[in-house]
Amino acid sequence: MSVFKRLHRILKLVVTLSVGLCFSLQVLADQLVLYTTPSPYGINWHTPHTLIRSVLRNHSSGQPHEIGHVAVGLYCSDRGLSGNPDLLTGMTSAVDNSQELLLRQGYGLGILFHNFAGRVNTWDEVITDINRGVQSGRMSFMAFDISRATCQRLMNYETEFRERGYEQSYGLANRPLYGEGAGCSAFGVSFLEVAGVDTNLFFADWGRSLRVPTRLVGGPLTGYFVPLARLILNPLSMWAFNRESWFPLSFWDPDRMHTYVHQVNAGSRAMPFTGEILSWGNARGLRMNLLGVPTPAGPIFRQ
């Protein structure tokens, strides 16, 4: 890395931390932090029709992270967010060819299962998102206190994930610990799994499970051609009923993760671990104590 690039990174980091140090708490632990940016106008998952229309609205907004985003920070310094990050990363698409798939190849809801070319976010991309979110409030964050051993395990996980080439696969349904690549939210939550946390504790508030009707799934899964107009112009389309053929889809929703932080801040949700609510500029956040969760041993990835 050139001297100029190093100075540029340091200056960006100073800008971010100068805002972050407004915390009114004493951080005395290593931390895993999930930074969540919601979609610009929300995504309506009520029916396939409302889903497509809301995605198109977000797409036309011109704002970043049109379907929401989750980034990851690791602070292995006993100072957590008050210190310098050892890692800032996230998963994103390398090439967005969704328009081609929907308009010309008739993927329909098969797009939800598509494996896009992927890459990890750069340090500068995450810093830019944090600065923007802290200033605008269009970001939330969850800081998890972890042990030094767990922080090192998470650093090793991120390195091995890239060394195996898993970052080259980006998809909503992908499971990162099974070597399938990841979507941004699944990648973020996978750090909690690698830290030994039972993520089922969060799924009711952060996740979604859908029955995607086979009749609306185009592309390689079915060989069907499903015109986009079939989804846009049919307000009566529904998720699958028990008696019809469907594909299961479970995933972590950045919008729901963001809403959860605000609900805990408002007192309408409780955290499964001891902790506190935080603020960082105009962004809302949470801090949870995972120091009682033992650092897992053995291989990180599963068969």
Describe the structure.
With 303 residues, the protein is of the alpha+beta class. The protein has helices at 3-20, 48-59, 98-103, 123-136, 148-163, 184-194, 200-206, 228-232, 254-266; strands at 30-37, 69-75, 87-93, 116-120, 140-146, 169-170, 207-213, 246-252, 275-280, 283-289. The strands form 2 sheets. Strands 6-4-3-2-1-5-10-9 form an 8-stranded mixed sheet, sandwiched between helices. Strand 9 and strand 10 (283-289) form a beta hairpin.
Short description:
This protein has 303 residues and is an alpha+beta fold.
* SSE class: alpha+beta
The portion of residues assigned to helices is 25-40%
Number of helices: 9
Radius of gyration: 20 Å
Number of domains: 1
Low-confidence stretches: 14-22
Average of per-residue pLDDT values: 92
Whole-Å distance between the termini?
Answer: 36 Å
General shape: globular
Order of helices and strands: HEHEEHEHEHEHHEHEHEE
Number of strands: 10
Q: Strands across the major sheet, in which order? A: 6-4-3-2-1-5-10-9
The largest sheet is: 8 strands, mixed
* Strand-residue proportion: 15-25%
